[in-house]
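Reply to thread "Modeling small-molecule complexes from scratch"

Following up on the discussion above, here's a worked example others can learn from. I took a protein sequence and the SMILES for fe (ii) ion and predicted the complex. Inputs first:
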Amino acid sequence: MKESQLARRDPATQSEGVVAGYVQTSQRWPAQPLVRRPLTRSELTGPQQLLKRLTPVRGDLAGYGDKRALGQLIHIRARVVDEDGAPVPGAVVEIWHCNAAGKYIHPNDSNDAPEDPNFYGAARMVAGDSGLVELRTIKPGAYPVPDTDGWWRPPHVHFSVWGRIWLSRLVTQMFFPGDPLNDADPILQAIRDADARNRCIARLAPTAKGPQNALVYDYQIVVRGKGATPAL
Ligand SMILES: [Fe+2]
């Protein structure tokens, strides 16, 4: 990968660092302009065989029978492509989300919502030749953001996509079409360009084309270029 391929953030299509109404972002984002430094071989190459370090885990968070997680069963078909729409086989895709009641499996989640012992909450998969990963899971719930004035996160699924080097990582969120909370979510709305925002929203596939007991959502992750999926 050349340095020129590591594009600068586009302020229209990538969210701003400090998001109004989301206090924590001001603690995570530099207050001064970034200093651009030439990348050297150590940044542009990296450990090979990423899969040996990031072991794939199951692509099923919903379980079966007595061990089924509560909630609406969904099937996510996420496709990783480059700026030309060509698949990115071998991309390592990590996915995590909260349970149907809006509770994460994380000690810092203070949301007063029940845990679900049958819900695991995270998966790591490898994109196949067509750039596709498929996840069977349940639809996550909305949850209130602590210390805010009534902000509820809309249902969403976190994605992390690793390329062939450590620097080529995209962390983003997938939203569900038509959710009324989408329009009020400071994180999604921090992307000013409407087309770029829409790239974060999955598409409900015709039911007949998917497993009959699950709603199927198609989601395309564009890892770079002008039409790249915004980082969130
Ligand atoms: Fe979240």
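What I'd highlight from this example: Residues 194-198 form the longest helix (5 residues). The radius of gyration is 18 Å. Questions welcome below.
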